[in-house]
Amino acid sequence: xxxxxxxxxxxxxxxxxxxxxxxxxxxxxxxxxxxxxxxxxxxxxxxxxxxxxxxxxxxxxxxxxxxxxxxxxxxxxxxxxxxxxxxxxxxxxxxxxxxxxxxxxxxxxxxxxxxxxxxxxxxxxxxxxxxxxxxxxxxxxxxxxxxxxxxxxxxxxxxxxxxxxxxxxxxxxxxxxxxxxxxxxxxxxxxxxxxxxxxxxxxxxxxxxxxxxxxxxxxxxxxxxxxxxxxxxxxxxxxxxxxxxxxxxxxxxxxxxxxxxxxxxxxxxxxxxxxxxxxxxxxxxxxxxxxxxxxxxxxxxxxxxxxxxxxxxxxxxxxxxxxxxxxxxxxxxxxxxxxxxxxxxxxxxxxxxxxxxxxxxxxxxxxxxxxxxxxxxxxxxxxxxxxxxxxxxxxxxxxxxxxxxxxxxxxxxxxxxxxxxxxxxxxxxxxxxxxxxxxxxxxxxxxxxxxxxxxxxx
Length: 458
Hints:
Blueprint: H1 3-10, H2 15-19, H3 29-48, H4 58-72, E1 81-82, H5 99-109, E2 117-118, E3 123-124, H6 129-138, E4 144-149, H7 152-163, E5 168-172, E6 178-179, E7 183-184, H8 185-192, E8 195-199, H9 207-213, E9 218-224, H10 240-249, E10 253-259, H11 278-282, E11 288-292, E12 303-308, H12 309-317, H13 321-324, H14 328-342, H15 350-356, H16 359-371, E13 377-386, E14 398-407, H17 412-421, E15 424-425, E16 427-429, E17 432-436, H18 444-457
Parallel strand pairs: 1-15, 5-8, 5-9, 9-10, 10-11
Antiparallel strand pairs: 2-3, 4-12, 6-7, 11-12, 13-14, 14-17, 16-17
Helix pairs in contact: 3-4, 4-18, 5-14, 6-14, 7-8
């Protein structure tokens, strides 16, 4: 063999050097190794056939392996970098789970556990007990019960099906919402067997409208939070406190679908929102309320129903619960997330860590990235506005900083596509490609820089 070919082959990085790189921290190492073996075999073949005369840089090798890995995983979930500034991006999985939280529950999930086993008495237990106790502490209420189903749509359906089958549910016309995927409240009610009774108008509903809507067929007075839209101008709505009082007066059940729901108001949202605080609603002693686990709560996908014990007990008797109940994975991650709230360790919850990050910290992130841009790339730091997303707080713009990125090799649409191929999702605003700092997770800046170096060499 030609000495020059031998020298080139010796320059190929060892497999352990490739696999030990931090770029693979969030990837399946066995699958990465297969992609690396495929790429290195191709590289050796190209050397022997003299198609190449020099070994690519380590960064280029890593990203070629990454490209092969991602191509092989097109039908699988893979990690992405969210640089869009939309925190709860539904298409990107909504709220990311905290690595520390997932690590905390790993032992439980890989062992047998006490999901439905009462350790004190040695008898069958209930799967919701542990989460219920954490919620009681968190919401500062000993008189509530909790039920967890697989999402908030399930929670709405279960409540209506249990308490209002062939009966009327009173809702304001201004709250007949439709969320993503054509999930419409009127349609859900129909499938649950409930009869919709609209009151008021689109922009104004008064307490007297609810009163006049009550009939012998009425079962529930419901309030649906306007999660993904807002009414402004000549508008009026009835507070949940007034509806709770009215429901009690007529011996009816009140139900509040909060939608996203906040357990804690982080820095970036202070003074910017009117999202219901769950503790405040629970203090009013409602019959039932429900909200999502994977939105502003920052946990796994779940529909969380909180309310008076008698009503939760009735919900548990509905045969549909068997189809809607959650498993040990959801419950353990939800409990660990709630424990982080109890300990006020908000940095463990990525969505809260993002919202707690100050503008000064975001600017420093951007400055650090700007200093490390490779050749062919340049950028400038600009003020930007992000959004919560996920059908939450549609009117709230969250101040942020972004890098407006340009490249000598591609226009912004082409650059957006090249970044997407490498797992970096960005947005284009006013003819600028933006990397928004607000939604970057730990180490994302370093990963983006490595990707840019790879693209610079292409």
